[in-house]
Automatic annotation (TrEMBL):
It comes from Tritonibacter scottomollicae. InterPro entries: IspD, IspD/F, IspD/TarI, ISPD_synthase_CS, MECDP_synthase, MECDP_synthase_CS, MECDP_synthase_sf, Nucleotide-diphossugar_trans. This is Bifunctional enzyme IspD/IspF. Residues 1-226 are annotated as: 2-C-methyl-D-erythritol 4-phosphate cytidylyltransferase. 4-CDP-2-C-methyl-D-erythritol 2-phosphate binds at residues 233-235, 259-260, 281-283, 357-360, 364, 367. HAMAP family: IspD (MF_00108), IspDF (MF_01520), IspF (MF_00107). Gene3D superfamilies: 2-C-methyl-D-erythritol 2,4-cyclodiphosphate synthase, Spore Coat Polysaccharide Biosynthesis Protein SpsA, Chain A. Pfam families: IspD (PF01128), YgbB (PF02542). Residues 226-379 form the 2-C-methyl-D-erythritol 2,4-cyclodiphosphate synthase domain. NCBIfam families: ispD, ispF, PRK09382.1. One of its GO terms (molecular function) is 2-C-methyl-D-erythritol 2,4-cyclodiphosphate synthase activity. Its cofactor is a divalent metal cation.
Length: 382
């Protein structure tokens, strides 16, 4: 699954003035384009492509230090720049593409996550802000009418698409289009609206530089929203010849009893994630009274908790799980468990810990009546 972002930066920035096109100009200690690229370097994006005018020396200078990005050639208008970028990305096995204006350097991390998440259930998605001001029609000097705003949204980027669908839509485009949502809709794709952000401004006029600088500086000063959650679970031993722990089948002279596959470690981690979001526990989302969850693979529960966190704009910073039992011995399997858990949660392995302890033969775990698991999870929203 490859996700790319196409950052369109081939405009001349005429309305912003200032001689040098706005995307190459300084902003809060870097350049506009540096902020925009950095927002996607921190997101779950595999490829970054910048569409720029290859003959513009300001572009060459500003992009020289970015060794890990791909480049494409801009066109006469925004749609042509996007189309050139999409064609350059073709054959790179891209599944999902975000299309973003270089002139929106303040794009918040949660907005990128949310629009990408919406692509799991829609062919296209884009952030929109419901219009709150009253709207008039008018001449330059006089109000001529009032416009109903109840169905109106201000369009933002990044706009997200399944790659093949938006490439075909652009290749079939006849005439101008305001943005890629219009291109997609002309090709018959339905576009989901995700929540836009008032800080995701597009630098357009000279005064927008000061606004963008304020937004970036205040986000640098602000403390990220960090949530901790804990989870605890116990399953009783019963007849069987293996146990499933953190997604790995471990041979044992007993099995674990439970409604699902009784993966006590995965349940504790799942509950830690729900806990961090104050979203109850597994039982609330997958009631044991519902027969469809009998014998279910626990990764269904874990994936649900992970998707819920992403849809709320959180990144999972780390999880730590401790299994408590005398037998089976966990040590020989712990690394495999970490890898499996990291794979399910789509996290780096070094952010996932699985470890074990005995309880010195004390209590129910010590007597070998069952296995207990404790977990902690940290969620971060920038
Ligand atoms: N863009 C582009 N290729 C074009 C025109 C625009 O890649 N031929 C990009 C711009 O660089 C910008 C984004 O599309 O990041 C949004 O366009 P806009 O804000 O209109 O930027 P400009 O066209 O550069 O500005 P202006 O219209 O004021 O000249
Ligand atoms: Mg323009």
């Amino acid at each position: 699954m490859t996700t790319a972002v196409l950052i369109v930066a081939a405009g001349t920035g005429t309305r912003a003035g200032g001689g040098v096109a706005k995307q190459w100009r300084p902003l809060a200690g870097k350049r506009v384009i540096d902020w925009t690229i950095a927002a996607f370097q921190e997101a779950s994006v595999d490829l970054i492509m910048v569409v720029r005018d290859p003959d513009n020396p300001d572009a060459a200078q500003a992009l020289a230090k970015h060794k890990d990005i791909l480049l494409a050639k801009g066109g006469v208008d925004r749609s042509t720049s996007v189309r050139n970028g999409l064609i350059a990305l073709d054959k790179m096995n891209v599944d999902k593409v975000l299309i973003h204006d270089a002139a929106r350097p303040c794009v918040p991390a949660h907005l990128i996550t949310e629009v990408l998440c919406a692509l799991d259930t829609a062919p296209a998605a884009a952030p929109g802000l419901a219009v709150t001001d009253a709207l008039w029609t008018g001449t330059a000097h006089e109000v001529t009418g009032t416009q109903d705003r109840s169905n109106l949204y201000a369009a933002q980027t990044p706009q997200a698409f399944h790659f093949d669908a938006i490439l075909s839509a652009h290749l079939a485009l006849d005439g101008p289009a305001a943005d890629d949502v219009e291109v997609a809709r002309k090709a018959g794709l339905s576009v989901r609206i995700t929540q836009g952000d008032i800080n995701n401004i597009k630098i357009t006029r000279p005064e927008d530089f000061a606004r963008a600088e304020n937004i970036l500086r205040s986000s640098m000063d602000s403390i990220p929203d960090i949530r901790l959650g804990n989870g605890y679970d116990v399953h009783r031993f019963g007849p069987g010849d293996q146990v499933t722990l953190c997604g790995i089948e471990v041979p044992h002279d007993r099995g674990l009893q439970g409604h699902s596959d009784a993966d006590v470690g995965m349940h504790a981690v799942t509950d830690a994630l729900y806990g961090a979001m104050a979203e109850g526990d597994i039982g609330r989302h997958f009631p044991p009274s519902d027969p469809q969850w009998k014998g279910a693979a626990s990764e269904i529960f874990l994936r649900h908790a992970v998707d819920l966190a992403l849809s709320k704009g959180f990144r999972i910073s780390n999880v730590d799980c401790t299994l408590v039992c005398e037998f089976p011995k966990i040590g020989p399997h712990a690394e495999e468990m970490r890898s499996r858990m990291a794979e399910i949660m789509n996290m780096d392995r070094d952010r996932v810990s699985v470890k074990a302890t005995t309880s010195e033969r004390l209590g129910f775990t010590g007597r070998g009546e069952g296995i207990a698991a404790l977990a902690t999870a940290t969620l971060v929203r920038a």
